[in-house]
Amino acid sequence: MEVVIVPDARAGGELIADAIAVLLRQKPDALLGVATGSTPLPIYQALAARVSDGAVDASRARICQLDEYVGLPPGHPESYRSVVLREVVEPLGLPASSFMGPDGSAEDVQAACEAYDAALGAAGGVDLQLLGIGTDGHIGFNEPCSSLASRTRIKTLTEQTRRDNARFFDSVDEVPHHVITQGIGTILDARHLVLLATGEGKAQAVADTVEGPVASVVPASALQLHPHATVVVDEAAASKLRLAPYFRNTYATKPEWQGL
């Protein structure tokens, strides 16, 4: 696993945006897997700035979703589909047709999960999947003790997760109880996994992911099994890494780091 320690979230966003830019030059119609939440926003902002400046041509890029609420009506402003369209697709100037995601309003949710998993494969697979990490080590909505071979499926949100997400709704009662999420096995199918973590609150999860054993109790530790996984962390999130000096000396000076 490659670990890059950056000064702050902005630097992490710039680094990863550069990597995406390199990918799009090599493969203009690359399928980019995106995550929601506040952590990846610096990536999307940096990438949109490059598109606006003409430094990157993203016109043929395709975007796919990591997870989605179940039961929200189509077009709900807090559905993850709406968030991705608002924060990624529109700022990059992409058409809505460039976007693919699971149908969280389907009558048969299990069939929708299977259809999305199949659609990702039919699209040629994800070229680069962006990931965040929870304080308990979850990725997507794969909570601790999720199967490391799991595929796209429906998951029940914990009450803590619902309370955490209530800030986006008028009340916690409006937060859905279920989500569709790519499984860990589905995530591992992507050609390149890039996880961004910032803040001291993520430090233990990062240390367990990078330096701990591969175990379902820390779902993100499955990234150790991937042939091309990159973890980008700020100083605070790196604060519990025993090998932090090694990572600084090994990776910070790699000339090819622009492309991760």
From TrEMBL:
<dbReference type="GO" id="GO:0006046">
    <property type="term" value="P:N-acetylglucosamine catabolic process"/>
</dbReference>
<dbReference type="InterPro" id="IPR018321">
    <property type="entry name" value="Glucosamine6P_isomerase_CS"/>
</dbReference>
<comment type="similarity">
    <text>Belongs to the glucosamine/galactosamine-6-phosphate isomerase family. NagB subfamily.</text>
</comment>
<dbReference type="GO" id="GO:0005975">
    <property type="term" value="P:carbohydrate metabolic process"/>
</dbReference>
<feature type="domain" description="Glucosamine/galactosamine-6-phosphate isomerase">
    <location>
        <begin position="10"/>
        <end position="225"/>
    </location>
</feature>
<feature type="active site" description="Proton acceptor; for ring-opening step">
    <location>
        <position position="138"/>
    </location>
</feature>
<dbReference type="InterPro" id="IPR006148">
    <property type="entry name" value="Glc/Gal-6P_isomerase"/>
</dbReference>
<dbReference type="Pfam" id="PF01182">
    <property type="entry name" value="Glucosamine_iso"/>
</dbReference>
<dbReference type="GO" id="GO:0004342">
    <property type="term" value="F:glucosamine-6-phosphate deaminase activity"/>
</dbReference>
<feature type="site" description="Part of the allosteric site">
    <location>
        <position position="156"/>
    </location>
</feature>
<keyword id="KW-0119">Carbohydrate metabolism</keyword>
<feature type="site" description="Part of the allosteric site">
    <location>
        <position position="153"/>
    </location>
</feature>
<keyword id="KW-0021">Allosteric enzyme</keyword>
<feature type="active site" description="For ring-opening step">
    <location>
        <position position="136"/>
    </location>
</feature>
<feature type="site" description="Part of the allosteric site">
    <location>
        <position position="155"/>
    </location>
</feature>
<feature type="site" description="Part of the allosteric site">
    <location>
        <position position="146"/>
    </location>
</feature>
<dbReference type="GO" id="GO:0005737">
    <property type="term" value="C:cytoplasm"/>
</dbReference>
<dbReference type="InterPro" id="IPR037171">
    <property type="entry name" value="NagB/RpiA_transferase-like"/>
</dbReference>
<feature type="active site" description="Proton acceptor; for enolization step">
    <location>
        <position position="67"/>
    </location>
</feature>
<keyword id="KW-0378">Hydrolase</keyword>
<dbReference type="GO" id="GO:0006043">
    <property type="term" value="P:glucosamine catabolic process"/>
</dbReference>
<comment type="function">
    <text>Catalyzes the reversible isomerization-deamination of glucosamine 6-phosphate (GlcN6P) to form fructose 6-phosphate (Fru6P) and ammonium ion.</text>
</comment>
<feature type="active site" description="For ring-opening step">
    <location>
        <position position="143"/>
    </location>
</feature>
<comment type="pathway">
    <text>Amino-sugar metabolism; N-acetylneuraminate degradation; D-fructose 6-phosphate from N-acetylneuraminate: step 5/5.</text>
</comment>
<protein>
    <recommendedName>
        <fullName>Glucosamine-6-phosphate deaminase</fullName>
        <ecNumber>3.5.99.6</ecNumber>
    </recommendedName>
</protein>
<dbReference type="GO" id="GO:0042802">
    <property type="term" value="F:identical protein binding"/>
</dbReference>
<dbReference type="GO" id="GO:0019262">
    <property type="term" value="P:N-acetylneuraminate catabolic process"/>
</dbReference>
<dbReference type="InterPro" id="IPR004547">
    <property type="entry name" value="Glucosamine6P_isomerase"/>
</dbReference>
